């Protein structure tokens, strides 16, 4: 029976060949302890020494998680022990975001699937760039084609490399494999204005003319315009060209857990390299990844391939992105992201596929001991189309996103507002009074029983409405935050990528 466990493992491997291991024992073969640096960082700390030591701890926790992620049993690890506590049972239903230590996460190894494995020397180069900022960075990840290639190796000349990276270390050149690209970062910070005040003092040249108005103006533009991110592009640090976006950790966690803009949540649907970890962000992002998986399942038929699953997930954040409607983005972008990063997508999502009771791998390739690393195999999956289970998935979608979806179907079903409010209140009361996880009711089951293509169109429409305005306003904001010159340069490069992608499609 599955009662009392938040996850039921449906192993891709034969059950006899994958014995359930105690997590402590499983990780004992690795040299790095997963709890050595788990004490976390005080949210309100502004003391330089404390921030520095906390950053070291969070970097070390990231290393520990990466080590755990390399375990051959990792696809089966995102489930608590055989005798879970009540906190483990309801972690997704009632997540505790008031945490500042990794030991406060629902269970050991929670969320280690988020940590991608990249070349060690390249990782250290990226991490050293963070230390060139005196302003405290609480959470950081590198992402995009500058970290995870989306094409085969190029043949750039030394002059072409220097045009991007004036003094790139060998590790960067090797990782980018002859196709030099600006490296993108997101920095999660505790106090927006304080961070920009320190950074303006140290790196005034990173900012446009807006910086001359001071940290108050900069933080206001960041927090009040667009999706709450402030980008500084075409910045050279230690001979490496980077773009970094600054976001308040509260804004980041809200988008990850509720999907109010999907701007940053969508970036984290795809593999990224976490350089400094934070327990609250890790918890929020695990909710985000499960939400992306559930949304993709609502858009997919009963049977599909692994590549179709990852392409659907990767495409969520581009559905409402104005760059995809205009000639400013490679039309093959989603396909390139998935096809060149299959192993990383598998590391990110295979443990979550294993955790859902209505989804399973159904492919003979899974019988191979090294199936995780076999990127030549495109595995087949099947989902249970039972309306009760699919109704539950609808009920467990992120709060802000789910509200928009409910509003669409309230109009479609012509439910009077008072009746609709009463129905929603009854659902809320049932959840509060019950120890069970959120269960879809008649309304959710009615949604899920709509014609498949109509359901997909409605969900896609809600995604577009969620993303469109934050993404558009964020793009417009870039001309203020980056300055007209750098903003135009960035736009020009995007147009060039679109033309190259179109040319490749024609060829």
From TrEMBL:
Residues 32-91 are annotated as: Disordered. It is a peripheral membrane protein. It is found in: Mitochondrion inner membrane. It is an enzyme of class 2 (transferase). It comes from the Eukaryota. GO terms for molecular function: phosphatidate cytidylyltransferase activity. Coiled coil: none annotated. Its cofactor is Mg(2+). Residues 77-87 have a biased composition (Low complexity). InterPro entries: Tam41. Its main location: mitochondrion. Its EC number is 2.7.7.41. This is Phosphatidate cytidylyltransferase, mitochondrial. The keyword Lipid metabolism applies. GO terms for cellular component: mitochondrial inner membrane. It holds the Pfam family Tam41_Mmp37. It comes from Xylaria hypoxylon. Pathway: Phospholipid metabolism; CDP-diacylglycerol biosynthesis; CDP-diacylglycerol from sn-glycerol 3-phosphate: step 3/3; Lipid metabolism. GO terms for biological process: cardiolipin biosynthetic process; CDP-diacylglycerol biosynthetic process. Belongs to the TAM41 family. The keyword Protein transport does not apply. Residues 32-53 have a biased composition (Polar residues). Keywords: Lipid biosynthesis, Lipid metabolism, Magnesium, Membrane, Mitochondrion, Mitochondrion inner membrane, Nucleotidyltransferase, Phospholipid biosynthesis, Phospholipid metabolism, Transferase.
């Amino acid at each position: 029976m599955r009662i009392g466990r938040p996850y039921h493992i449906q192993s891709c491997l034969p059950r006899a060949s994958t014995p359930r291991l105690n997590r402590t024992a499983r990780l004992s073969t690795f040299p790095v302890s997963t709890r050595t640096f788990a004490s976390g960082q005080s949210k309100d700390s502004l003391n330089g020494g404390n921030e520095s030591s906390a950053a070291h701890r969070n970097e070390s926790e990231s290393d520990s998680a990466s080590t755990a992620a390399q375990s051959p049993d990792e696809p089966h690890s995102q489930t608590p022990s055989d005798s879970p506590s009540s906190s483990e049972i309801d972690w997704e239903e009632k997540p505790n975001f008031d945490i500042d230590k990794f030991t406060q996460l629902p269970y050991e190894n929670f969320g280690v699937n988020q940590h991608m494995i990249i070349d060690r020397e390249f990782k250290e180069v990226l991490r050293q760039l963070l230390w060139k900022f005196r302003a405290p960075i609480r959470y950081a990840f590198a992402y995009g084609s500058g970290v995870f290639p989306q094409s085969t190796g190029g043949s750039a000349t030394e002059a072409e490399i220097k045009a991007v990276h004036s003094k790139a270390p060998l590790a960067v050149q090797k990782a980018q494999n002859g196709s030099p690209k600006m490296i993108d970062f997101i920095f999660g910070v505790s106090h927006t204005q304080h961070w920009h005040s320190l950074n303006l003092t140290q790196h005034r040249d990173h900012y446009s003319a807006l910086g001359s108005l001071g940290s108050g103006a900069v933080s206001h533009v960041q927090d009040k315009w667009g999706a709450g991110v402030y980008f500084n592009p075409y910045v050279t640090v230690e001979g490496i060209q980077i773009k970094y976006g600054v976001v308040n950790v509260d804004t980041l966690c809200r988008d990850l857990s509720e999907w109010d803009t999907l701007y940053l949540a969508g970036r984290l649907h795809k593999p990224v390299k976490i350089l400094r970890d934070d327990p609250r962000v890790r918890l929020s992002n695990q909710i985000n990844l499960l939400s992306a998986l559930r949304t993709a399942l609502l858009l997919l038929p009963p049977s599909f391939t692994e590549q179709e699953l990852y392409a659907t997930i990767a495409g969520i954040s581009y559905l409402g992105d104005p760059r995809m409607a205009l000639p400013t983005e490679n039309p093959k972008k989603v396909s390139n992201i998935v096809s060149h990063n299959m192993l990383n997508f598998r590391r990110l999502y295979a443990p979550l596929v294993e955790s859902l009771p209505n989804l399973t791998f159904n492919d003979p390739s899974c019988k191979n001991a090294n199936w995780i690393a076999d990127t030549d195999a495109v595995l087949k999956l099947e989902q249970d189309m039972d309306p009760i289970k699919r109704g539950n998935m609808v009920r467990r979608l992120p709060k802000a996103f789910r509200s928009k979806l409910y509003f669409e179907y309230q109009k479609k079903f012509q439910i009077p507002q008072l009746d609709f409010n009463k129905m929603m209140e009854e659902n809320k009361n049932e959840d509060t009074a019950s120890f069970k996880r959120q269960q879809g009711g008649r309304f959710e089951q009615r949604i899920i029983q709509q014609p498949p293509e109509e359901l997909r169109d409605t969900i896609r429409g809600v995604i577009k409405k969620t993303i469109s305005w934050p993404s558009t306003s964020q793009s417009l904001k870039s001309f203020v935050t980056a300055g007209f010159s750098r903003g135009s340069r960035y736009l020009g490069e995007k147009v060039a990528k679109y033309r190259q992608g179109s040319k490749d499609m024609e060829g």
